[in-house]
């Protein structure tokens, strides 16, 4: 990440916004814990393949209580939601951070852990709905969605379901995938993310993904919030 002196040498107003607003204000807002802000930020950077700032934010995440096991799992998760190349770029950066901090294999998640319990009824309903919609269009996608995403990836225990949902929603907003937000924002809130936390994640993401991406997501989030049971 460029130093504040580097930023000042090119864009002094940006340095002031970075100091006063982003680091001095946004990161200190009480609506979202620093650990959650780190998860949101890493998800956005990985989804957008923005590796320049990533070493700083991986270190910050570790300082804020995100474990190496969780960071590893965030990268693995986003291989599916942002693409393998973006995940590989994150691996290249994070490898050096882990090495500098002496993170060993014993601090990483196992390859094949005991999965979390599956809500069979909800998953059967999801799979049936997706199969009816797209089974004849791309049966391979439908099959991998069931077998790999929802019966494997989402059940990996190294990242709590609430945090996995927070990663997913953040990545969708960061990459402008508005159509996928309703399902995953509802899932996030079912997994324990509060409306206030979701709103604060949107505020945080405005600075890391740009106002247009967040304003594109706001009507969708508003609709989800209004339709949730009170």
Characteristic terms for this protein:
230 residues; 12 helices; mainly alpha; globular
Notes on the protein architecture:
The protein is mainly alpha-helical and 230 residues long. 69% of the residues lie in helices and 0% in strands. It contains twelve helices and no strands. It has helices at 4-10, 12-23, 34-47, 54-63, 68-82, 84-100, 120-134, 139-150, 161-174, 181-190, 195-209, 211-227. Helix 9 (161-174) packs antiparallel against helix 10 and helix 10 (181-190) packs across helix 12 (211-227). The termini are far apart. The mean pLDDT is 97.
Give a brief description.
This protein has 230 residues and is an all-alpha fold.
């Amino acid at each position: 990440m460029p130093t504040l002196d580097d930023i000042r040498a090119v864009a002094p107003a940006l340095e002031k916004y970075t100091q006063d607003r982003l680091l001095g204000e946004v990161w200190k807002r009480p609506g979202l814990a620093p650990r959650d802000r780190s998860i949101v930020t890493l998800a956005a950077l990985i989804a957008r393949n923005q590796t320049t700032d990533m070493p700083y934010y991986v270190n910050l995440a570790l300082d804020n209580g995100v474990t190496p096991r969780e960071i590893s799992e965030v990268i693995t998760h986003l291989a599916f939601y942002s693409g393998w190349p973006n995940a590989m770029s994150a691996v290249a950066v994070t490898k050096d951070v882990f090495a500098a901090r002496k993170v060993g294999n014993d601090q990483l998640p196992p390859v094949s852990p005991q999965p979390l319990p599956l809500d069979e009824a909800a998953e059967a309903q999801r799979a049936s709905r997706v199969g009816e919609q797209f089974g004849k269009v791309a049966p391979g996608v439908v099959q991998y969605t069931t077998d790999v995403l929802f019966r494997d990836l989402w059940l990996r225990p190294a990242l709590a379901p609430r945090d996995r949902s927070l990663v997913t929603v953040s990545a969708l907003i960061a990459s402008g995938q508005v159509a996928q937000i309703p399902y995953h924002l509802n899932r996030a809130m079912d997994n324990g993310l509060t409306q206030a936390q979701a709103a604060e994640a949107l505020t945080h993401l405005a600075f890391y993904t740009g106002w247009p991406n967040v304003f594109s997501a706001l009507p969708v989030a508003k609709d989800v919030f209004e339709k949730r049971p009170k």
